[in-house]
Amino acid sequence: MPLIIEGRVPSHWLERRNSPGPVSIDRARRLPDGIHLALINNMPDPALEDTELQFFDLLDAASGSTPVYLRLYSLTGVPRTERGERHLNSFYFEFDDFWKTPLDGVIITGTEPHHPDLRNEPYWKLLAEVFDWAARNTSSTILSCLAAHASVLHFDRIPRHRLPDKQFGVFEAERNCEHPLMNGIQSPLRLPHSRWNEVRANELSRAGYNVLSSSPLAGIDVFVKKIRQSLFLHFQGHPEYGSETLFKEYRRDIKRFLRGERETYPTMPHGYFDNPAAEILERFQQQAVAARGEEVMRSFPESVAKGLQNRWHASAVTIYGNWLRYLASERARSTVFPAMTNTYSDAREKRSAV
Question: Is 177 a catalytic residue?
């Protein structure tokens, strides 16, 4: 069952697909009811469309035979260029629409922070309102990276802690417990990470969070907590990432170093490049450090991206498939109970009339 994107479908999604593409909204209305989701994509403009594709691909692969309807939103207050605003205006729903749309689940991405304390970000108030709304009105909510840190700060005042270096690469994690969202996941679980901060296991456990997987090198990986009626599923990493996403981030950070926007040369992503590619990149690093300047990027070895493989995709599809099944079961349960209540009420009325 293809993913059903409500509203206008971004053209880059149609161009990427070999199949006929997402079902149009007209045809979608003729399909049996499915899972209704919102993706609140807050990523900076350079990653905005890539992030769309990553979640489109993942949800499409995880949906199986279940129709998944997706609406796109983005928080107001996230800095945007003119091009970014045009994209949002073309393909995203106005945020006023979000509050009145019945949804089974919400996926909230992070963005690049500008303040050590997330509560000082210009979008914080709206993001906190979204968390509270999702807790009351959805069956489950996915929080990606910075959004996971923001959620635990909002609900339980759990701070994030600055790391000495960027947690960057593909890390192996072990399952910490049995949980339906981890069904079918074999250890070690590989997921990409890209972050400068972390939340810690002891602080999460004291606040009632259940850590599903963790890595000796990357720390906490996946954790959950039921908040009001919604199961909040937090990822410190990025299961949605494509095969070249870490490569693009690494190249971006190198450019920032060469422009003088960061002091140190970025660390190569862990567990990502094979040995020949790593050797090529190490030689480029020596060249870049010796002759620091943006013109050095003209000799950047773009060819190393050709051999990259998405070794976490199967695990990501399994987790998201489990999540969609959880949403479907919650939808079925909420449908059955009102029907049973109505039947019971009808029976009482008939007995009273006798």
Answer: no
